[in-house]
């Protein structure tokens, strides 16, 4: 028996939300995932998450949500994170006392999937707790929970740090899936001890853009060194980046990981 998991990279703004809603039925038909996850730290016009935008995603068919360094950009996210049955987690290595949880067990029939969200520290503006030690702490906490799979969303800048965490957790988790840079990498593989790894899934965002943001203002920023407003295109061609991971639920090891990249008009 296997567990099939589909995860979207950073979903950027309205165009990203619409793209997920448009393509997900097709992907569900093709892959038959047991669990659909999306990173939603850029969901609400590129910064943070709101009740309304999260509802759009659940209506579209996404089951569970992770975030990143923009997790708290919208004040209302605190309410979402504190809900008893919240489907949204924030990175576990934020300091103690931060609202919400950094991991959660998602139940699929008799199977249980632990999803862990972590932030990297290399090249990041803020100083977070050590993601390596936090991962150890969480795995120790759930060691007797008879889990079928363990999925880690590692939201980090440096591919070296993401590779390092992948090898550090090899054989202990089912997959380490990188997010944050919005640039999909081509280094996906199953590591020697059975952990699927990709250093960045990529984004679900406007194709004619710079990392999902309107290119004109980004160019102005580079040319003038004056900060510009980040505008998110709402229509046009959208790049959809996701990964499909199949896990042997008897030993929690990955069977395969497949990259998904499509472009659709919104």
Automatic annotation (TrEMBL):
Binding site for Fe cation 2: 41, 69, 155, 180
SUPFAM superfamilies: Metallo-dependent phosphatases (SSF56300)
Signal peptide, first to last residue: none
Superkingdom to which the source organism belongs: Bacteria
Amino-acid positions noted as binding Fe cation 1 in the UniProt annotation, renumbered to this chain: 10, 41-42, 182
InterPro entries for the chain: Metallo-depent_PP-like, YmdB-like
Catalytic residues identified in the record: 70
Molecular functions (GO terms): 2',3'-cyclic-nucleotide 3'-phosphodiesterase activity; metal ion binding
Keywords: Metal-binding
PANTHER family on file: 2',3'-CYCLIC-NUCLEOTIDE 2'-PHOSPHODIESTERASE (PTHR36303:SF1)
UniProt protein name: Metallophosphoesterase
């Amino acid at each position: 028996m296997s567990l099939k998991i589909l995860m979207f990279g950073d979903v950027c703004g309205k165009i990203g939300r619409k793209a997920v809603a448009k393509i997900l039925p097709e992907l569900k038909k093709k892959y038959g995932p047991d669990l659909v996850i999306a990173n939603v730290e850029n969901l609400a016009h590129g910064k943070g998450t709101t009740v309304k935008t999260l509802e759009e995603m659940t209506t579209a068919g996404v089951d569970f949500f992770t975030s990143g360094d923009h997790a708290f950009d919208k004040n209302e996210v605190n309410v979402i994170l504190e809900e008893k049955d919240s489907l949204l987690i924030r990175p576990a290595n934020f300091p103690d006392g931060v609202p919400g949880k950094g991991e959660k067990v998602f139940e699929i029939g008799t199977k249980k999937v632990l999803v862990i969200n972590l932030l990297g520290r290399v090249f990041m503006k803020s100083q977070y707790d050590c993601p390596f030690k936090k991962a150890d702490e969480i795995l120790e906490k759930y060691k007797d929970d008879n889990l079928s799979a363990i999925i880690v969303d590692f939201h980090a800048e440096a591919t070296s740090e993401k590779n390092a965490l992948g090898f550090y957790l090899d054989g202990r988790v089912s997959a380490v899936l990188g997010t944050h840079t919005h640039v999909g990498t081509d280094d996906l593989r199953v590591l020697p001890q059975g952990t699927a790894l990709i250093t960045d899934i990529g984004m679900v965002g406007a194709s004619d853009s710079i990392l999902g943001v309107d290119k004109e203002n980004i160019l102005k920023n580079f040319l003038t060194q004056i900060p510009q407003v980040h505008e998110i295109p709402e229509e046009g061609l959208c790049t959809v980046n996701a990964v499909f991971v199949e896990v042997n639920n008897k030993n929690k090891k990955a069977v395969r990981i497949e990259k998904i990249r499509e472009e659709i008009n919104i």
